[in-house]
Design a protein that fits this description.
globular; three-stranded mixed β-sheet; 5 helices; 3 strands; alpha+beta
């Protein structure tokens, strides 16, 4: 089965011209972070991400990221895949000290 989150993030990575730290959560994070995750996680049609408050201004000013996001959404529009759910940390329910518990997705070369 195709891994939609991986397809979306690989395309995003290909469009970026400089490194960008992205905090993925939801089904995409489960599909990418756990071996043998259920197929329905890999079938999700989008990637959700958290934008940390401490980085928000820099992210908002990062034209490279926003242009890459737009290109990904254009590339996958016919397939119904998208990368638009970007939330500030105060917009989602998180555990205390969540930022210190982030697990890098190094298995995919990101």
């Amino acid at each position: 089965m195709l891994n939609n989150p991986l397809r979306i993030l690989q395309a995003l990575d290909g469009y970026l011209t400089s490194p960008f730290e992205l905090i993925v959560y939801g089904r995409s994070a489960l599909a990418l972070g756990y071996p043998n995750a259920p197929d329905e996680f890999a079938a999700t049609m989008d990637v959700d991400a958290i934008l940390p408050s401490k980085d928000l201004q820099a992210i908002e000013e990062n034209d490279d990221f926003w242009e890459a996001q737009d290109k990904v959404n254009t590339q996958f529009s016919d397939a119904g895949l998208y990368f638009t759910h970007l939330f500030e940390e105060k917009q989602v329910i998180l555990s205390p000290q969540w930022y210190t518990r982030i697990v890098p997705l190094t298995a995919f070369g990101f």
